[in-house]
Each structure stands twice: as C-alpha cells, then as structure tokens.
Amino acid sequence: MPYNPFENAQAQFDKVAELLELDQGTRDLLRVPMKEFHFTIPVKMDDGTTRVFQAFRIKHNDARGPAKGGIRFHPHETSDTVRALSMWMTWKCAVVDIPLGGGKGGVICDPHELSQGEQQRLCRGYIRQLFSQVGPTIDVPAPDVMTNGQHMLWMMDEYEALAGGRYPGMITGKPVGMGGSLGRTEATGYGVIYTLGDLLRAEGIDIKATTASIQGFGNVAEYAARLYSELGGRVVCVSCWCQADKKAYTFRKKDGCDIEALSQIKDSFGSIDKDRALSLGYEILPGDAWLSEDVDILIPAALENQITPAVFPNISQRVRVICEGANGPTTPDCDPLIRERGISLIPDFLCNAGGVTCSYFEQVQCNMNYFWSREEVLDKLNFTMAKAFRAVYELAKEKDLNMRDAAYVIAINRVADAVRLRGWV
Ligand code: GLU
C-alpha cells in the first residue's frame, strides 16, 4: 500500500491530540484544512496549443496569522500531499513561534518540460485564479520543490497588476533587490544544519568527526551540504535525480563530496548531470544507496515517504542522527523503530523551519521597506531556530518523548490556544 502523506499527518496529529487530551472540537478543526482551492490553469504553449494544468492551494489554519507556505511544481503532486504539507506548515510556524498559519500550493507539472515563457504564463495563471484568496494578510506563498525566486516574482507581478499597487509582502523567496531577503536562498538548508549543530552540541558530539549521507540536491539539500561541510563534516554521498535518465542515482566520494563542484553540474531544479559527475570521479550507485551508507548522519532532503519500515533495516548501525530536511520523509510507522535503535531524529517541521522563518523576516523587511545585512538575517535565524530546538529537546527529555512528538506538543498547544482565544472552539 503506498503511503498517503495526509493520513500520515493526521496519524501524527491524532497521537499527540490524544496525549494532550485535546477536546473534540479542536481535534475536528485541526485535523483537516479549513479551506481548499482546486482549480485549472489554461496555459498557451509556445507551439500555439493550450495545455490545462491542475492546481491546488490549501489553507490548513490561519488562527495565528495569515497562512504561509510554498507552491510546488511536481508531476506527481496530489491534493492529499498538499493537504498534508499545509498542515505541517501550521505546526512549522507554530513551533518556531512566528505569527503565521499554514498553507501550501501545488501544480501538477514537470517544469523541466516547460520553456521560460510557459513557466511564466503558468505562474501568472496561478495567481489569476487565486487572486482574491492570496495576499499579505490572507495567504502568502513561497518557493518549494521545483519553484524558485523567478517564479515568485512573476506571481508577485501578476498580483500587483491585478491589485493596482505594490504588495511585496504577498509572496516570499523573491530575488534579492526585488523585495527578497539576503539569506533566504540558503535559509532552509542552513536551518537544518543549525538544528543539527545544536543537537550534536547537546549530545557532546564534534561535528568535525561526523559523516553524512544526503538525499536530494535541490535548494535545501545543497545549502545544508554546504554549511555542514564548512563546519568540518564530511558529506560522503548525495542522492539525486538525473533528468537525462529520468531516475535517481547516488553520487559517492568516500573522502568527501565537493559541494561547490556538484552545484556547478546541477540544473536549476536540482538534477545532477551523471556524465559530468563520473568525470569528476564520483561513484554512481542506485538512487536508494544513500540510505544504507555507513555514516553518522542521514539527511533526507528530497520528498516524502522515503524512510519506511520496509527500508529501515538497510540503515547502517552507525547512524546516530536523522535530520529531516524534507517535509514528511519518514512514515509514522517507522518512528518507533528509529527510537528503539536510539537514533535521534530532528523532525521536519522543526528541522526545515529555517525557510519559513526567513520568509517571515522577508515580510517584515518588505513592510519596513528597509533590508537587513545577510549577517543580521542569519543571526536572527540562528537565534530563532536555537530557541525552538532547545524547547523541543528539553521537553522531549523531560517527558520521555521523541523529538517529533515533543515538537507537536509545543506546536499544537500554541495553535489550540489561538483557536480557543479567537472563540472558534
Ligand atoms: N516551502 C518552504 C517550507 O516548506 C518555505 C515556506 C515559506 O517560506 O513560506 O517550509
């Protein structure tokens, strides 16, 4: 049976709702999204034909502030995936305590197959369909899987054309100089490594003595790999999509991957050129080989449902930490196995919260129309992530919970308080 991310997200929520003895009304409200938009986007293609794309925007909860979350472009996008991701955004914003709710969007498409003009028309069409339901006080999109700053800027431009004014706070992850924040590109990946650094320090492990295996080489994985290497860790392999072969491979260099060199041979959607990797001396292994690598740290930073009970036995006994750079990479039935083995898992909505935290800073800067230095942004990011990590880590120790459940306890309590204070339940 394939895993359904929305059922996974609900199972995680139900478990902690039970633990917190949450009242039924709050459970009924928080276990499903509050609003959903399913729509089509007709796009005039370069060859003169029209292609119709299926799209979604789903708002899980906005009790703590306007909904916030990315838009994914993916050929296998489903409404249930977007539902799950919107729910995880609510917990993500709550666990780092930023005044935003949770939302997510998606378009079923493969941007590799679309020209720049077609991508631009798709982005504009997305906003035209949603115009009255997005905006700085309603729901604020951002980049996610296979979307980037250019896509965000086209969306902002379309919104501003329709609204008749300048609204840079309606979307985040914009290019620097066009309302974007310095540090936003690297924020999610850096945040992953900030939380990893905090965990290793708390456990008395020297990052310089560790090795890691990473799944993915998109924006999150690349910048996590960069910072981890800069801090002295050794990335042994990176598993990544190869668009030419339409499959994933694991690119391995036992004495350490050169992340800068790898970034030179990837396309803008995170696909690595296999032949060029071979010429750089990388071993090419099957896509799932990253998981069984003999390393201290696993960083799944690609898509959901990658670490399941079926593949868990392949994980090396040496692995001590799993950092969830992706959203939902571990299925709920695998969490107990991870805990039994004594592996520390930093849960996705804490581990990868750096992106949305920096998006919040971007909105703040846009509102002031005054932009901070990269150093200032990253300092604030590190401070926010460290505070959230410490609260989760300490609660997990105090209540003998895994870090996922501890993070859920903190996040759900905050959102439950908000819906109560608003008088919704
Ligand atoms: N797409 C990112 C995430 O899943 C960032 C969302 C945002 O910045 O709003 O957290």
Order of helices and strands: HHEEEHEHEHHEHEEHHEEEHEHHHH
Strand order of the largest sheet: 9-8-7-6-10-11-12
Unreliable sequence segments? none
Largest sheet geometry? 7 strands, mixed
End-to-end span in angstroms?
Answer: 36 Å
**Compute the gyration radius: what is it?**
20 Å
Helix content, binned percent: 40-55%
Task: Name the average pLDDT.
Answer: 97
Beta-strand content bin: 15-25%
Bound ligand species: glutamic acid
Shape: globular
Instruction: Give the helix/strand class.
Output: alpha/beta
Count of DSSP H/I helices: 14
Task: Tell me the total number of β-strands.
Answer: 12
Notes on the structure:
The protein starts with a helix and ends with a helix. It has helices spanning 5-19, 24-30, 79-95, 116-130, 149-163, 184-202, 219-230, 259-264, 274-279, 335-340, 348-351, 354-368, 374-399, 403-421; strands spanning 35-44, 50-61, 67-74, 101-108, 139-143, 211-215, 234-242, 247-252, 283-286, 297-300, 321-323, 344-346. It is 43% helix and 18% strand. The strands form two sheets. Strands 9-8-7-6-10-11-12 form a seven-stranded mixed β-sheet. It contains 14 helices and twelve strands. β1 and β2 form a beta hairpin. The chain binds glutamic acid.
Brief digest:
The protein is an alpha/beta fold and 425 residues long. The protein is built from 14 helices and twelve strands.
